[in-house]
Write a structure and sequence with these properties.
Blueprint: H1 2-6, E1 10-13, E2 16-19, H2 33-53, H3 60-74, H4 81-93, H5 97-102, H6 105-121, E3 126-137, E4 144-153, E5 156-166, E6 172-184, H7 187-192, H8 197-200
Antiparallel strand pairs: 1-2, 3-4, 4-5, 5-6
């Protein structure tokens, strides 16, 4: 009988049994899964901002890692517009002088929010970013680097080349990037890439049903 009093309830589904948390000594508010996800996101967001505030990246690798972390908190499932409004100026501090001049901040913010919203509606979130190749360029003095990153989202994976160059003040900065390969994992990913169902069938010979294509993109 005491056990029954302490048990708040349970839900049984096909292949899934979820039991509620048992509380003693009165009612103690707990986190539902949605609340836990939000808390986890807020922690990641705060940690990323803290990393940004530690100081400017000392190497091209550190710059791209920080840039990727900032993208992840924008394209996360629990991201809000206010998060994006806070992050975009941070992204811009990593730009080269020329790239900053090419991109109006207000216009960029509007486009960024619209793009995040488009992916969010398709439940396509940025899950992880991996540096897969680092190449330093230059003759007598190394003043440029090309870093290849795989950005993995819920439905697509983008392999992107980032060009990082040294500015006159000695800091490393993002000069441009180019998407060199895009793969889709799901029909949603295919739709996001604007590929028709019939066209997609051409690429279904591969084991994981991926689309591989070449595309380039700039931030302007």
């Amino acid at each position: 009988m005491n056990f029954l009093k302490r048990l708040l309830g349970f839900t049984i589904g096909v292949g899934l049994i979820a039991t509620s948390v048992i509380y003693t000594n009165g009612w103690i508010p707990g986190f539902a899964p949605e609340d836990e996800m939000l808390v986890k996101y807020q922690t990641k967001f705060e940690n990323t901002v803290a990393d940004f505030n530690k100081g400017y990246p000392a190497s091209p690798e550190e710059l791209v890692e920080l840039y990727s972390d900032l993208l992840e908190v924008c394209y996360a499932e629990k991201a809000e517009e206010e998060n994006i409004e806070q992050v975009v100026p941070m992204l811009r501090t990593l730009y080269s002088t020329e790239l900053s001049l090419l991109n109006d901040e207000t216009t960029q913010l509007e486009k960024f929010i619209a793009d995040v919203d488009k992916h969010s509606q398709q439940e396509n979130y940025l899950l992880a970013s991996e540096l897969v190749r680092v190449e330093y360029l230059g003759n007598e003095e190394v003043d440029k680097s090309k870093i290849t990153v795989k950005h993995t989202m819920s439905n697509i994976q983008t392999t992107r080349d980032y060009t990082i160059q040294k500015e006159e003040d000695g800091r490393w900065a993002l000069a441009n990037f180019k998407d060199v390969q895009i793969q889709y994992f799901t029909p949603t990913g295919r739709d996001l890439l604007g590929i028709s169902e019939e066209e997609g069938k051409k690429y279904e010979k591969s084991k994981d049903d991926t689309f591989e294509g070449d595309t380039s993109e700039s931030l302007d």
